[in-house]
Amino acid sequence: MIDRILAKRIVPVVVLDRVESAEPLAEALLEGGLDIMEITFRTAAAEESIRRIAARFPEILLGAGTLLEKEQVRRARDAGAVFGLAPGLNPAIIASAKEIGLQFSPGVMTPSDVEQALSLGCELLKFFPAEVAGGVDMLKALAGPYGHTGVRFIPTGGVSSGNLSAYLKLPVVAAIGGSWMVDKQLVNDGKWAEITRITREALAAAAEAR
Length: 210
Ligand code: 3PG
Known about the structure:
With 210 residues, this protein is α/β, with parallel strands linked by helices. It has one domain (2-205): Alpha-Beta Barrel (TIM Barrel), CATH 3.20.20.70. 46% of the residues lie in helices and 16% in strands. The chain has helices spanning 2-8, 22-32, 46-56, 70-79, 91-100, 111-119, 135-146, 164-168, 184-188, 192-208, and strands at residues 10-14, 36-40, 61-65, 83-85, 103-105, 107-108, 124-127, 152-155, 176-178. Bound molecules: 3-phosphoglyceric acid (3PG). 3-phosphoglyceric acid (3PG) binds next to loops.
């Protein structure tokens, strides 16, 4: 599964206000060439949106983001998510994910966070909030002492088409995450063709950064 995240190298971070947007959004991303999504547990629509997408688009690698409570980890998995993420590192959430076998990436921002994540058995980590936490330079610095451990990052927060290639050129970066191609306004306005266009553009930029 991690290989599939690595293959596309872009994780769209989705905030859905309406369940009705879930399937057309999934179609728009697929049309643009992206078969991976992170649906954030920030809205009431998250769980049912995951359920609908998982049922209709089994080809999509479906993640649940913003998992802040243990209960959400189980609900996300039961709805059909196959991986989970959070903005921070919460040992209780990591333990819950491990218990039910859900691949989980906690958020980290400091060397201490990285060490704690590694000691809890997590190697694919969300680096959040990427741009304000030092961006590419910070990741280069973290790669020094931790590159040999196998740790890999998904920088998210302030990443978009303008800076994604700088991140993806770093060997320590597995993929980048971002909301720009699934901008809430575009989703709420049903601008599916525009989402497809931005997605294609992002994938082309990511491919060039290889
Ligand atoms: C988030 O969890 O909201 C992500 O970090 C998205 O950040 P972005 O909107 O800057 O891409």
